[in-house]
Amino acid sequence: xxxxxxxxxxxxxxxxxxxxxxxxxxxxxxxxxxxxxxxxxxxxxxxxxxxxxxxxxxxxxxxxxxxxxxxxxxxxxxxxxxxxxxxxxxxxxxxxxxxxxxxxxxxxxxxxxxxxxxxxxxxxxxxxxxxxxxxxxxxxxxxxxxxxxxxxxxxxxxxxxxxxxxxxxxxxxxxxxxxxxxxxxxxxxxxxxxxxxxxxxxxxxxxxxxxxxxxxxxxxxxxxxxxxxxxxxxxxxxxxxxxxxxx
Length: 247
Description:
This protein is an alpha/beta fold. The chain contains nine helices and seven strands.
């Protein structure tokens, strides 16, 4: 029993909360911490947009072709006037931030705090460390007018389907979702077609996805379906110090 007790103490707070009912006081305290996490993030990230969020694996280093392509994606988005937002970590996230940073654009990250201490990458103008996965996912969607899904793993697929579901259910507007890497995502796209064929999704839901291997095609798609559709412009920033806001 002692070993189990020690293991529970070492678990991240979110993991302990999901492990089952806690005392009423601990569950109330958890809601206050989540509320504080949201408010802190809203104040820090209020002036970063308009953004495009780039999702992708944390495991690809700078010798990987997908890393190099993500750099080009980040640079292209920055040249279009977007802030490039990622999960703030290594791999594809670092590459997209690096591309934006070195192109003279604005680069931000929402870094998750993990037991093995994922650190923010070196190509961020602004970042926030987030304790809870669900708060982080919310922020990665909240400020963005388009989503670019680079090759990745389970977390990347989770972020992709979270975004599509919110668009499908009209919780957010019909923002463009670009799946980058047709060969890597071939079976994924085929499975989505199978879902449409079997009517577990609407055939119109297929229109929510744009699959490409071209940075130029990605940029043109986002220009048409985000910049022109939503008439995006950069607005002047007027931070208020007593809200804890900074440019």
